[in-house]
Design brief:
alpha/beta; seven-stranded mixed sheet; four-stranded parallel sheet; 12 helices; 11 strands; 17% strand; elongated; binds adenosine-5'-diphosphate
Length: 363
């Protein structure tokens, strides 16, 4: 059977284990020899025990676990050709020419580069007698299928990334808990949630929790935001509300691009309204805990689709990323989605927020 390896790379997210499980089982089911690569690209470069054959039961009882059981890492070595040469050797030694990468846009970019270089890496390995002529011929094509694991929902082309729904559950649980204490003491709470370039978590959490205000990177506040916020909070209290909730995304900014931090919002509320105001920074709690049913199923469906894409690949097949489109797992050209995702970051850096929102599309 075909040699296929799965690895998780970059930041972890809930649901990655479901994806790994699905890749392993679908791969075995379709007759592939499936391997785990531990610690992302680092394990691929280092080889040895980091690359281990998986069997049906090695992915039992992991679907409910958060994070990734095969480890994830950032790897400087893989950014150098020297590192990628070692990685290519480690894969060929095991007959692996199919990769499923679960990570963010950085990880997918690395995979695409690896594929572009594959032929020249193999030539170099042959020239230095690391591989034989037969191996050079047998393993001449590398195939890649990606999936996006990210709690931020910050990738173009997919309606949801693996982990976003679970992170929202964590945030909503936290807000619900805060609301009861805020109510008792008539407090205002400012919740900082993750999302450096993408306000999806903040926006959806605000809608789902009846927050009074939300600050996100894609919609920088106008010059008179202080006045508008204070008026709103004041009105809410006057009409009988005992508390206020304000959600701030990490990357929230004003029209000049200056950060709107939880501290700044707190100062505004305290100075203008003298409300008893507290800040809660959710931080890594958002990445933790068990994956939601949605993320488990999303990981399962995407993992199965990724394996099918690899099994059906021909020499001409370009790397794909498996995306959610409506309620369907579909294959999209990997680099086109990465390029669009990077264009969004660029548009935000250029303060062209309308373009950023337009480029991001449905997600
Ligand atoms: P994410 O995948 O979550 O965006 P990173 O950007 O940190 O996270 O990428 C994860 C890893 O992918 C990096 O540590 C590196 O090993 C690899 N990688 C990222 N960008 C590249 C690149 N341009 N070339 C080669 N490898 C890359």
């Amino acid at each position: 059977g075909k040699g296929l390896a799965v690895f998780t790379s970059g930041g972890d997210s809930q649901g990655m284990n479901a994806a790994v499980r699905s890749v392993v089982r679908m791969g075995i089911y379709l007759g592939a020899k499936v391997y785990f690569i531990r610690e992302g690209y680092q394990g691929m470069v280092d080889g040895g025990d980091n690359i281990e054959e998986a069997n049906w039961s090695s992915v039992s009882s992991i679907i409910h676990k958060g994070g990734t059981i095969i480890g994830s890492a950032r790897c400087m070595d893989f950014k150098q050709r020297e590192g990628r040469l070692k990685a290519a050797f480690n894969l060929i030694s095991r007959g692996i020419t199919n990769l499923v990468v679960i990570g963010g846009d950085g990880s997918l970019t690395g995979a695409n580069l690896f594929r572009q270089e594959w032929s020249s890496l193999l030539d170099e390995l042959l020239k230095t007698n690391k591989i034989t002529k037969d191996q050079r011929e047998k393993y001449k094509y590398l195939h890649i299928a990606g999936m996006v694991g990210s709690i931020d929902n910050d990738f173009c082309g997919t309606d949801m990334t693996i982990g976003t729904d679970s992170a929202l559950h964590r945030i909503i649980e936290a807000i619900d808990a805060i609301v009861s204490t805020a109510y008792s003491h008539q407090r205002t709470f400012i919740m900082e949630v993750m999302g450096r370039h993408c306000g999806y978590l903040a926006l959806v959490a605000a809608l789902a929790s009846e927050a009074d205000a939300v600050f996100i990177p894609e919609d920088p506040v106008p010059y008179n935001w202080v006045e508008k916020l204070c008026k709103r909070l004041h009105q809410e209290r006057k009409s009988g509300q005992r508390l206020n909730i304000i959600i701030v995304a990490e990357g929230a900014i004003d029209r000049e691009g200056k950060p709107i931090t939880a501290e700044l919002v707190k100062k505004v509320v305290v100075d203008n309204l003298q409300q008893d105001t507290r800040i809660t920074v959710l931080g890594h709690v958002q990445r933790g805990g068990s994956p939601s049913a949605f993320d488990r199923i999303l990981g399962c469906r995407m993992g199965a689709e990724a394996v099918m894409a690899l099994m059906e690949a021909t020499p001409e097949t370009e790397p794909c990323v498996v995306s959610l489109d409506g309620n369907q797992a579909v294959r999209l050209p990997l680099m086109e989605c990465v390029r669009r995702t990077k264009a969004v970051s660029q548009a935000m850096a250029d303060k062209n927020w309308d373009l950023a929102v337009q480029l991001r599309g449905r997600s």
